[in-house]
Input
Amino acid sequence: MIQSANKTKKEENEINLVIYFTNDTNGHPLKFNYNEADDQGGIPARAGLIKKLMDENKGSEFLILDSGGILLGRPESNLYNGETDIAGMNSTGYYASGVGKSELMLSKDGFQSLNDRADFIFYVQISRIRRVNRFVIN
Output
């Protein structure tokens, strides 16, 4: 293997990884008003920010993750059982999403339908929970 004069073998094998992480979007696929500010959030704003970050980090590997809680909020999410949220996440390029409380509220068939539509992986964290008096401890 011939190495370039400017890079060591170690540097040639290095990558720059940018991780973009979202959580608890709670069924807001479209922009909305929040704290007296108009046109906040939603998938278009998220996609625009991700594109901007990708443009600023050209040549980097990019990983887009969500912790879950992507459904159940606005009518456009609720009425279409989260299909709008999944479509937006697909078009944005998400790699994986956790299964949050809102996803657990779906029926088995309802979640399976979303899982079939998703171009990304759903992951689950399992932790042992025990109850001590009135508090839950992981």
